[in-house]
Each structure stands twice: as C-alpha cells, then as structure tokens.
Amino acid sequence: MNEHALPAGRAGNDEGAGRPTREEAEEAVRTLIRWAGDDPRREGLADTPSRVVRAYEDWFAGYRQDPASVLARTFSEIAKYDEMVILKDIPFSSHCEHHMAPIQGKVHVGYLPRKRVVGISKLARLVQAFARRLQIQERLTAEIADALQAELQPLGVAVMIEATHACMTTRGVHAREAVMTTSRMLGIFRENAKTRAEFLAAIGK
Ligand SMILES: Nc1nc2c(ncn2[C@@H]2O[C@H](COP(=O)(O)OP(=O)(O)OP(=O)(O)O)[C@@H](O)[C@H]2O)c(=O)[nH]1
Ligand SMILES: [Zn+2]
C-alpha cells in the first residue's frame, strides 16, 4: 500500500480518498487551536501543529498496517498441543470515530488451535493494528476476532475488550468510572458454554 492510500472501505467519500499533505494537516491543527481560543503563533504553540501531525502518524499507524500479514508467520510443530492459548490484559489505545477522543483499555484474546499457532506477540500486534485507527469498540472487538479466525482457522476465537472512552469520561455525560465491555465468541467459544466459561475464568471474569 502506498503512503497516501487509505484502506478499502475506510476512505469514505471522494473528499476522503486523497491523503492531504503534511502542510495541509498542520494548517488544520492551527485552525483547531484558533477554534479552541488560542493563538497558534505564540511561542509555546509554534511547533504544536508539526507535533500533532507526528502524533497522528503514531496514533493512526494502523491504516498503513495489514493485519493479515501480522499473522502470516505461524508454527505447526505444536506437539499435539490442543488446549486454549490465551493472552490477557493486552493494553491498547485507540480513538473513537465519533469524537476522535481516546479509548483506552485492555484486550483479552483466546483461541483453540486446530493445527497452527502464531507467535504470542503477534496477538498484541494484531490488536495494535486495528486499535490505531478511528474505531468504535464493537468493531475493534469484531475485527480482532474475525482476523484471527480467518488467518489461523482455529477451532474458535474469543475476544473481550474492557475500555474507557474519554468522550464519555472527560466530556458530555462525564461518567468518569464507566467501563465498556464487549466480546466476540466464534466457533467452539460460541457453541460450547464450557469452553467459553474456561476462557472467562482464565481472564478472571
Ligand atoms: N457503541 C459505541 N458508542 C460509542 C463508542 N465510542 C463513543 N461512543 C458513543 O457515541 C455516541 C455519539 O453520540 P452523539 O449523540 O452522536 O454525540 P454527542 O452529542 O457528542 O453525544 P454525548 O457524548 O452524549 O454528548 C455517544 O453516545 C458516545 O458515548 C463506541 O466505541 N461504541
Ligand atoms: Zn466518542
């Protein structure tokens, strides 16, 4: 994917299809500083537009990552290991697509391998690839689970996310302690209550 391309299905309309230049992005930040009520020319804010644009490259790096390639390298010599693999408490930061405000929390991922396993760090990398985009928590949950199911073809996948949404905790309704929980259970985790319960117990739920 070239540097200016947006992934299919996320470019939206014609206006969204082309990536703006860095200078255009910095100008947009100056506009927002003025909208907030400050003067983008004052000393402390002079370098802020370029910092914000660099921060965006970090926060939204997921648009330039291919989640499938994160899972491409798998291991099949697993000595008939046929139990669940679980990685819990994977921390993540994302941004809600409604307010572009931070979503912060943790993801718990489990799967029951059929023939192949993936390097455990790749589960965390997969989470980051989807989190570093504009998201809603439900879609983030589904995308992680569906990618694992498609790429590893395990007997099942379980994903649970617990997160706070700054758009709810710092503004609007100001529900400071509210934590949103979402989950997606596929295959045997959906069909078999005992398997699902084993996953939930392992992550302390
Ligand atoms: N379901 C879901 N809602 C989210 C997520 N992130 C933010 N929201 C909600 O998206 C909604 C947007 O609602 P709107 O009424 O269009 O926006 P708003 O006027 O700013 O709403 P308030 O936040 O209630 O002031 C809010 O209720 C947010 O709390 C998410 O990941 N999932
Ligand atoms: Zn929001």
Structure notes:
- The protein has two domains: 14-59, GTP Cyclohydrolase I, Chain A, domain 1 (Orthogonal Bundle), CATH 1.10.286; 73-202, 2-Layer Sandwich (GTP Cyclohydrolase I, domain 2), CATH 3.30.1130.10.
- The protein contains nine helices and seven strands.
- It has helices at 14-17, 22-36, 48-59, 67-70, 120-131, 137-152, 166-169, 188-191, 193-202, and strands spanning 74-75, 85-96, 102-112, 117-118, 134-135, 156-165, 180-187.
- A hairpin with a 5-residue loop joins β2 (85-96) and β3.
- α5 (120-131) crosses α6 (137-152).
- The longest helix is centred in the C-terminal third of the chain and has 16 residues, at 137-152.
- It starts with 13 loop residues before the first helix and ends with a helix.
- Bound molecules: guanosine-5'-triphosphate and zinc ion.
- Residues 96, 98, 136-138, 165, 167-168, 172-173 line the site of guanosine-5'-triphosphate (GTP).
- Guanosine-5'-triphosphate is lined by residues 96, 98, 136-138, 165, 167-168, 172-173.
Descriptive labels:
single chain, 205 residues, alpha+beta, GTP Cyclohydrolase I, Chain A, domain 1, GTP Cyclohydrolase I, domain 2, five-stranded mixed sheet, two-stranded antiparallel sheet, 40% helix, elongated, disordered N terminus, binds guanosine-5'-triphosphate, binds zinc ion, zinc, GTP binding
